[in-house]
Specification:
Layout (H helix, E strand, L loop, with lengths): L4 E5 L20 H14 L3 E3 L20 H11 L4 E7 L5 H14 L4 E6 L4 H5 L10 H20 L3 E4 L4 E5 L12 E4 L4 H10 L2 E4 L4 H17 L5 E10 L3 H13 L3 H10 L4 H8 L9 E4 L1 H14 L4 E5 L3 H19 L9
Parallel strand pairs: 1-2, 1-11, 2-3, 3-4, 4-7, 7-8, 8-9, 9-10, 9-11
Antiparallel strand pairs: 5-6
Bound molecules: flavin mononucleotide.
Length: about 350
């Protein structure tokens, strides 16, 4: 049986991933995330992950203005959950690797060996320039070189007594980090680049690579590209992607719900998000009409239809798993646990533990 993993992208910032004034008003606060995490743990999902976000996009919904900090939130969730893996996001641009090594180790001890780190280089200028942490001279390649050094140091601190490192971005001198993580061989590492440079990074340093894309064909291309680059380096990598699930009792009702979200899409926030991705004003104007309220791959329908569409998505985009998004996480996760996950588990086995 093929292995597949199913996890949830926690709503750590207000509005979640459906940018619409007609979508449920997710507040991005701890209790909302805790409710979702407890259900994810109860129904037997493989992981919960939260992003790291420092600035929102405005618009009528003030999308993502309110957010929790990822690592500290996941530490709280590690304490209240029992089985699910807890993956936090940290920016190489912001945090010294010795600090991150110890934070993830602490998360691993709190969770008794369930910690993971989503590695992000830091790409969105406004998030960092607001705090004086962005250098306009640095290129995408520079940021990946920093992140390479950063994760190399973190991995070494997790396994060595003392680390000396003389890099372009970081210097370590007899740097020590104890205790070591409980996870063997080390906590899970995840990365989500989309460029060839990003794939070179994730396939070299991470266990799983989260891909995006505007269409399923683009996602399939990214999925194949990630595996090709991994193979060129003699590696293997798990490839996962996001999936928004909009369900109701019938297909017609779910389609109507999705249309309602679309009718209320917050174009101000959507356009400001495109700007944050570094898109030029002409390109934003050209793409504005094509952007939907729910930007990720979305399956809508009755639970049975959603299950079929998720299986098709896994097959078509050649994925090892999906990270789920819901308009209402409590309703969505309860339904997923009762009506979709058992059937998916009968077709696919859960991911096996890594060997040391
Ligand atoms: C699932 C997923 C999660 C991501 N989480 C974050 C995040 O928490 N913070 C962040 O700054 N960027 C995040 N990103 C953006 C990526 O780190 C990366 O900057 C982006 O995909 C562009 O890829 P590139 O670096 O190869 O150009 C995420 C991307 C994806 C697909």
């Amino acid at each position: 049986m093929d292995e597949k993993m199913f996890g949830v992208f926690l709503p750590i910032a207000n509005g979640g991933w459906i940018i619409s004034k007609n979508a449920p008003n997710l507040d991005g606060l701890y209790q909302t995330n805790r409710d979702a995490a407890l259900i994810a743990d109860k129904i037997g999902l493989d992981f919960i992950m939260s992003m790291a976000k420092w600035r929102g996009f405005g618009g009528e919904t003030d999308h993502w203005r309110t957010s929790m900090e990822s690592m500290t939130m996941m530490a709280g969730l590690a304490e209240v959950t029992e089985k699910v893996k807890v993956w936090a996001t940290m920016h190489a641009l912001l945090h010294n690797p010795a600090v991150v090594a110890k934070m993830v180790t602490t998360l691993d001890h709190i969770s008794k060996g369930r910690a993971g780190l989503n590695i992000v280089a830091g790409a969105y200028r406004e998030e960092f320039s607001q705090m004086g942490a962005w250098n306009d001279e640095e290129t995408h390649e520079d940021r990946y070189q920093r992140t390479e050094e950063w994760i190399t140091i973190i991995k070494r601190l997790w396994s060595e007594e003392s680390v000396d490192f003389d890099g372009r971005f970081f210097k370590m001198e007899d740097c020590q980090s104890d205790p070591k993580p409980l996870s063997r061989p080390r906590p899970d590492l995840i990365a989500a680049g989309q460029s060839d440079r990003g794939f070179r990074f994730s396939t070299k340093h991470a266990d799983a690579c989260f891909i995006g894309g505007r269409t399923d064909d683009e996602r399939r291309t990214h999925s194949r590209r990630a595996r090709e680059i991994a193979a060129e380096n003699g590696n293997e990598v798990k490839v996962c992607a996001m999936c928004t699930v909009v369900h109701d009792e019938t297909d017609a009702k779910a389609d109507a719900l999705l249309q309602r979200f679309e009718d209320g899409k917050d174009m101000g926030a959507i356009m400001s998000q495109m700007k944050s991705w570094g898109m030029e004003p002409e390109k934003i104007a050209a793409n504005a009409g094509k952007m939907s309220a729910s930007q990720n791959h979305t399956v809508a329908g009755s639970p049975e239809t959603c299950r079929e569409k998720i299986e098709h998505y896994l097959d078509y985009c050649e994925l090892d798993g999906v990270m789920l998004i819901f308009p209402d996480y409590v309703k969505g996760l309860e339904m997923f646990g009762a009506e979709i996950l058992p059937s998916l588990r009968s077709r696919y086995s859960p991911p096996q533990a890594k060997s040391a």
